[in-house]
Structure formats: structure tokens, C-alpha cells
Amino acid sequence: MSSDIDDRSGLNLVPRPRFARRLKGEVELRSPLTICGPDHPILDRLAEDLAGALGGAVHRCAGEQGCGAGLSFSISPAEPGSYALTIDQEVTVLASDSDGLASAVATLRQLVSGSLFSRSEKHHQVLSLPRLRLVDAPTFAWRGAHLDVARHFFSTNVVCRFMDLLHLHKLNHLHLHLNDDQGWRVEVQGWPKLTEVGAWRSSTSQGRIGELHDNGIAHGGFYTASDIAQLCSYAEGLGITLVPEIDFPGHALSALAAYPEFGNTGERFAVGTQWGISSHVLNMTAEAIEFATSVTSEVAALFPGSPVHIGGDECPTSEWKHHEVAQALMDEHGFREPRALQGLYTTKLARTVAALGRKVLAWDEVLDAEVEPNTIIVAWRHVLLGIRAARAGHDVVMAPMEFTYLDWAQSEDSSEPIAILPPPFATPWQKVYAFEVIPAALEEALHHRILGAQVQLWTEYIPTQDHMDYMAFPRLSAFAEVVWGTQGQQHAFARRLHCHLERLSLLQVKFRPID
Ligand code: ACM
Fold first, then answer.
1. CATH of the domain at 321
2. Is residue 2 part of a domain?
3. CA 160 to CA 505: how far, in whole Å?
């Protein structure tokens, strides 16, 4: 998978393609231009962006390759996610599927002499591309990023721009963490108080651990159904699969602020203003499990066809020990530990989501109670949990915090901005680049269980787009090469990364400078 031979083409693509040869000269694109290829949202989006960048007309035609268009695309089944790109008299792409098409377009966006995103204000009369031949394919189908829009809410504009940057790096899944103790972020028709009450908190905790203070500033926001439709459509144009997460039965305080009857203590709750894990969780009544199921199904319906993440992490069981319904269920099922109760949520939610024809994901804690075999485990606590899941017959998305949590500081230096954990917890880009998606200890017969990996952006300490940029980049660029499967020697990557960061500068990305 990894290779010591770095890209000698001088193209400085990130992730490095499997094969690239630079040919002499450049090809110029100017309007009017024609893009020939199948009717596909990725090509519609490319045409729009090219028209914006060139400040002139870009037409679409459905003709066969070689019809004389400036850019010709065709799809023909081959290795999943693969594509061949030739830039010569014209630009020709042969892609195996939608994923390959998106990756080919991402390569063009990196190669072109200017910004090829519609939000760029600059028009270029002419865009040039280096002449080349390139053949490329990913190792992993699940190349993802997670974004916590619960701890801090981000507008659809910010999320769409983040998607641009994922696509530029050939990442194809965006996992949206839509609820947590500190906020509920998606409108649910059947449960309106989730956003009326749960989307707003009175204050936010700030400062280093040990010196925390409330800033006294209200924070909130949520996505309407129409916002979600906009995100889905935008994702489609970039070949990105959105993965909504509704996190139950823990991390439920914002839901309990809206519907306290689903709590364990009979008290009224406020949306959380402090970070950390609330001990207030959903109770074990049939009504609460039905509530979780109804909400998750409604949110799933807003994301047609998407895999659905049912959460399941960090659920304290202390309240269940004192709740009569939970205790009765323990007796009824013969459970010895209250942790086993969580399995009643996991299995009900997973069966419901699967019955909708969707893939189901959950955090690795669900392995500690009953879990449906078709649940894809997102292994975050350690790679060992990914191994355990694969051995138990689950597909796995690797997300170990030690390598993929981009809310950790980028060095141990005290000048780093406040991050979720104090030094010595730090993840420099070099450590991300050293991450191996398939753990060495996993037997080869189970390698197919590892669908891929994703980086996580938890946003307790990330309130703005600029700070999101700072925490995400350049580590996300390093990760992109790891999960594409062409990671090689660190020093060679560092050289390419320098050039790639110039690309990100052009796109106004406020990345952390590399040391
Ligand atoms: C997690 O970081 N609690 C999934």
C-alpha cells in the first residue's frame, strides 16, 4: 500500500496519485468551453465552477468522448473509485463510477492555474492545465471527515466550504454530529421543541481546563429541512456522502431540555453550557426508546439514501441504576450490568434504520452491549476497538483519537491555541501521516472489514471557520494521502505539502503553518 517512491512528476498533488507522468507543455481553457459526458451532478457542478472561473459560457453536451469538447468524461466500470486522466489536446477522463469521477474532478481542481470553486471572486480569462497522463485509484472506499456542529453551530455556507475542501482532498464522506449536550441542530417536524428549546444555550464555557469561565453569551442555531436539502444537493455535486448522526442515549441533554419526560430524574434541564459528558441520559422507558427511534427516522428521511450514524458513545449508566423501569428491564432480560441496557437502544435504532434501507454506523462503545452484526463500528477510542469490531464480524471505519482527532493541539508548544486536551496531548501532522488505516495486528482475512477512516473535528474549542481551518489543515491534507493509500516517506510528502499549502492559500484557507 505505501510506497517509498514519491511523485516525480512535479505536480505536487495531495493525495499522491498512483501513477502520473508530466508531459511537456500546457493546455489552455477559455470560454466558450464544452464539457462532454454523462448527465451527472458532479459534471454540472464542474461546468458551473468553470463558467464562474472563466467568466464566460461553459456548455454541457452528452456526446461520446472525442466529440471535440474541451473536456470529455465517460464512466465505465473498473476498480472502484478509479479514474484515468489525460490532459493533451483535450482533457479526457475515464472514471469507473461516481467516486472516480469526483476524484478526477478534484485532481483537475488541484492542477488548474487558479481557483476552481464558485465562491472564489476572481475571474481568469484563461486557465491552464499541465499536459499529463495519470492513472489513479483509492485504497479505501470510506474516506471521511466528521464535523461537530453541535458544540458550535456552523452555517450551511461554512459547511459547504468545508465540503469543497474535503472534495479537493478526495474525501468522500462528511459525518455531521447533529446533537449533543450543548445543542440540537436539526429541525424535526414531529418534535418541534428539539430546536425551539434544544438549539439554544445561554452561555459557553471558555478558557483552559482548570481556568474555565462562562462567557455569558447565548449561542445556538439549527438547520431547517430546506437547509439540509441544500447541503445534500451541494454534497452530491462534489461526490460527497453526508452521514447524519443523532447521538443517543447519552449526549442527550439538549433533547432532555426540550422533552424532560424522557429523562431519569423528573427534573427540568437546561441545554448544557459546560463541556464534558453529562450524566443525564435518556431513560429506558418504551416511550423514550420510541422517541429516539422517531427522531432518528425523521432525520434519516432528510438525508435520502445516506448511511445513518446512531451515536452510542460515552453514555453514563448511573441514572439507570436508580430508575425503576431500567431495573425492571434488567430483571426481565437477566442483565447483570446496566451497560447491557444500552443494547436495547442500539438494536432498536439499528433495526429501524436498516429497515429504511440505510447503512447503520455507531461509535465503538456499542460493542459493550448487544449490537446488530450489520452495524458499522466507528472505532474512536483506539485502533484495538477497530480490531475487536472486525473480529466480531463488523465492518469498521477507523477514527482513533490518537491519530485522527483534529481538535487535539498540533504541537506541545504552549503557544498553541487552547485545545480539548492540555499538553502533552498533541497530534502533529507527522503523526497523522504515520497513521496506518489497517492495523498491523489485524489478520489479513479481516482486512476487507476496514472500510476506511475519517478525521474528527469536535468543536468545543473551535468557534469559527478560521479556527476550523487552523485545526484541520494541514493535518487533513496528510490524512487524505493516508486514506487514499499512497502515503510514502514523510520528507517527500513534506516537500509536496509545502506546494499544496500554496494551493490552500489561494483558496483563503487559514491553515496552521508547518514548522
Ligand atoms: C467521541 O469522541 N466521544 C466519539
1. 3.20.20.80
2. no
3. 18
Query: Domain tally for the chain?
Result: 2
Q: Which pLDDT belongs to residue 4?
A: 41
pLDDT value of residue 3 = 43
Instruction: State the closest ligand 1 atom to the C-alpha of 399, by its place in the atom list counted from 1.
Output: 4
Is residue 4 domain-resident?
A: no
Ligand 1 mean position, distance from CA 313 (Å):
6
Specify the pLDDT at position 67.
67
Mean pLDDT by runs of 10 across the 515 residues of the chain is 60 96 94 94 96 91 72 96 96 98 98 77 84 97 98 98 98 99 98 98 89 94 98 98 98 98 98 96 98 98 98 98 97 98 98 98 98 98 98 98 98 92 92 98 98 98 98 98 97 96 94 93
For the CA of 314, the nearest atom of ligand 1: 3
- Extract long-range pairs of 78-83: CB within 8 Å, 24+ residues apart: 79/137, 80/137, 80/138, 80/141, 81/137, 81/138, 81/141, 82/135, 82/136, 82/137, 82/138, 83/107, 83/135, 83/136, 83/137
Residues at CB less than 6 angstroms from ligand 1: 313-314, 363, 380
- Gap between the Cα atoms of 43 and 146, Å rounded: 25
Please tell me the predicted confidence (pLDDT) of residue 5: 54
Query: For residue 173, how far is its CA from the centre of ligand 1 (angstroms)?
Result: 18
- 179 with 186: CB under 8 angstroms? yes
How far apart CA 496 and CA 515 sit, in angstroms, is 14
**Residue 84 CA to ligand 1 centre (angstroms):** 38
Which of 136, 163, 183 is where one domain is finished? 136
Q: Which of 136, 156, 174 is the last residue of a domain?
A: 136
CB 282 within 8 A of CB 249: yes
Which residue, by CA, sits nearest to atom 2 of ligand 1?
380
Q: How many residues would you count in the chain?
A: 515
Nearest CA to ligand 1 atom 3: 313
Return d(Cα 339, Cα 7) in angstroms, integer: 50
Q: How far apart are the CA of 37 and the centre of ligand 1, in A?
A: 42
In the block, residue with C-alpha cell 431547517: 224
Pocket test for ligand 1, best of 181, 363, 408, 421 (most atoms within 8 A of CB): 363
**432 found inside a domain:** yes
Q: Whose CA is nearest to atom 1 of ligand 1?
A: 313
Would 11 be classed as within a structural domain? Answer: no
